[in-house]
Each structure stands twice: as C-alpha cells, then as structure tokens.
Amino acid sequence: MDSYSVVIVENHTLFSQALSGVINSFKNFNVMYTCSNEKELIDKLKFSSTLPNLILIDFPIPVSYNVNIVKYIREQHPSISLIALSDEKNESTIIDMLQSGIKSYLFKEIETKTLETALTEVMLYGYYHTSSVSNILVNSFTKAIGTKRTILKEQEKKFLKYICSELTYKQIAKKMCRSPKTIDGYRDCLFEKLKIRSRTGLVLYAIKNKIHKP
C-alpha cells in the first residue's frame, strides 16, 4: 500500500497533538501538519507545494473565516478527501455532511483501529462508514424509497459497486469494458427502477444491500 499524508484541523492543541501521534503510528499514514481553524488550513493549502491526501477535520468546524470549507476543498482541491471527526450525533447533520462531500463521519469515541480502518478505506474505496453511521444512512434511505425489493441484473450490481468508488462514469465504462453510452443506460435504468435521482442515492442503496465494494 502507498503512504498517505494527512492534515488535521482541530482547535484543541492537546487533542490535536494526541491525534497526530496516533496517526503517525499507522504504517501507511503520516501527518503533514495541523491547523487550528479553516483559515489557517486555506492559507497553508494556498502556499504549500504538496497537497495532503486526507484532511481530518473537527466538526463543528472552528469558524474564523467566512467560507464553507467542505465546498471550498471540493471545488478547489477535489483530489483531497475530507473526513469529519465529531461528537455531534444528530442524524440530519450527519446526512447533510455526507451529502456535502465528506467521505467519512467519525465519532470521537472511536477506537484507534477504527480510525486506521477509516483512513485506509477512504483512500482505497473513496468512503468509509461505521456501523452506526451506516444504520443512519440506511434508515434515511429506507424512509425515502420504502421497503420494496427490486431485482437487479448482474451488470447493474457491478455498476453499483463502481458507483461507490471515486471513479467517474467514463472511468467506470473503461473498467467494465462498456461504452460511456451503455454506462449512462445502466445509471438511467437504476434511477427508474429504484426511484432515485442522484449518485448519492445509488450509493446508499448499495450500502443498504451490501453490494458496495468492488
């Protein structure tokens, strides 16, 4: 496995230092630097010659700059994956954060091994959800579309697995040895079958039905 760099955004110095020590003990991860708020993060990203692979950010995010940091990272540095670390357990907040572009939402009481797994899977698959967060997502998804079971074709299941990755539709077409038009057909067919209108909805369906990893 490759080595991945991490930046921590946390305004409590002792916690930030402790978290840095934990992450640096992981075999494939190292902390590039820490920031106390999003303004400091933006400044460092602007003037750094090397970008991190991951940003582990405290939530609620320490506010000192009038900017939506998740949107900013998604638009300005799309190669960076964002992971939220929080004590906040409100279901709507968690869903909103994940829909905004956060790749994983972790509670601060998680064990060290879970943190390492989260960092690893975000880099390998593009996301990671603990069982508690997965249950929140599944419950939300079930409420949205009901409990009717839909039979999917094998190629549709394969497509759903790739949907859960960071691959674009064009890259998925290449992986599946299909034309982009065919891939668009799979997507549109699933939208119709599942009564879903977004890629996020397809990901939630895949998680609920345990068909989300290539």
Describe it for me?
52% of the residues lie in helices and 14% in strands. The chain has 214 residues and is of the alpha/beta class. It folds into two domains: 4-139, Rossmann fold; 148-208, Arc Repressor Mutant, subunit A (Orthogonal Bundle), CATH 1.10.10.10. A five-stranded parallel β-sheet has the order 2-1-3-4-5, with helices on both faces. The longest helix is centred in the middle third of the chain and has 15 residues, at 131-145.
Helix content: 40-55%
The residue ranges in which pLDDT falls below 50 over 5 or more consecutive positions are none
CATH third-level topology of the largest domain: Rossmann fold
CATH 4th-level superfamily of the largest domain: Response regulator
Overall domain count: 2
Number of strands: 5
The N- and C-terminal alpha carbons lie at a distance of: 17 Å
| Biggest pleated-sheet summary | 5 strands, parallel
CATH architecture descriptor name of the largest domain:
3-Layer(aba) Sandwich
User: What topology, given as strand order, has the largest sheet?
Assistant: 2-1-3-4-5
- In percent, how much strand structure appears in the residues? 5-15%
Strand-pairing-aware structural class:
alpha/beta
Q: Helix tally?
A: 10
Q: Averaged pLDDT, please?
A: 84
Shape: globular
Order of helices and strands: EHEHEHEHEHHHHHH
Question: How much is the radius of gyration in Å?
Answer: 18 Å
